[in-house]
Amino acid sequence: MTVHEETRAPIVVLGATGTTGSQVADLLEGAGQEVRRASRRSEWRFAWEDETTWQPVFDGARAVYVVLPEEPLDLEPFTRRLTEWGVGRAVVLTARNPAVSGDGIASGAEDVFGASEVASTFLRPSWFAQGFTNGFFAAQLDATGELRLPVGDGREPFIDAHDIAAVAAAILRGAAAPSAVELSGPQSLSFAEAVDIVGTRTGRELRFVDIGLDEWRASVAPYLPPRMVGALANLFDAIRQGRDDNLSDGVRDVLGAPPQPLAAVIDRHRETNR
User: Fold this and answer.
1) CA dihedral defined by 106, 107, 113, 119, rounded to 10 degrees?
2) Which phi and psi (to 5°) does residue 94 adopt?
3) Which of 42, 140, 147, 256 is deepest in the core (most CB within 10 A)?
4) Which pTM does this prediction carry?
């Protein structure tokens, strides 16, 4: 394959209906790149547990954006097949401090992709700011006006998912990046401060309530699987202990622009949904 042909070859975006995958695909297509949007519900159907769906998606592709499976999976066969099909580049969304991410999926993925022949870049973001617009935190605030979590005064530099997608798209298009890119928002906030920002920007009376870990576990046990409860509990404990209270320069390093603050994410969501 010539260089010209290679740059025209498709890029696969896994999790293309999700928070970051959909935006990565939009940005690549906006730059004139051919994209294969892959997910369980896409035209390019992809399922981690069904290997028969893999080759049709990746045949002839040159790169892939990887959103990891929700359940633990041996990824070595997947990376081996990528090499066989000539996929030379992967941008893999993992997690901040992947060794303590709680479920072993992120750290295991970095080990497997790092040992493969696929040139891989790992994106390690802090918690998504979108949790306060259409995610886990927003659902609780919308229903009760309160966010009840076992994080104490711990702080987190919430990151705009669009910044993550922009970094991923830039690297997939050829931007220089190290093997791991640490990503965060521009300010570290306590959850009480974050909830105050959401309330101020949306004109609502909202509040954060610190609760014990056992109380939180009991409150989510009816609708979250035990593995996820355990993983989130581990992450909340990391926040309570201050292990996430640091900023990262990955967005600026790759894009040459600062990351967006939580207030801007809230404002953009309100404008989009008017």
Assistant:
1) 90
2) -115, -115
3) 147
4) 0.94
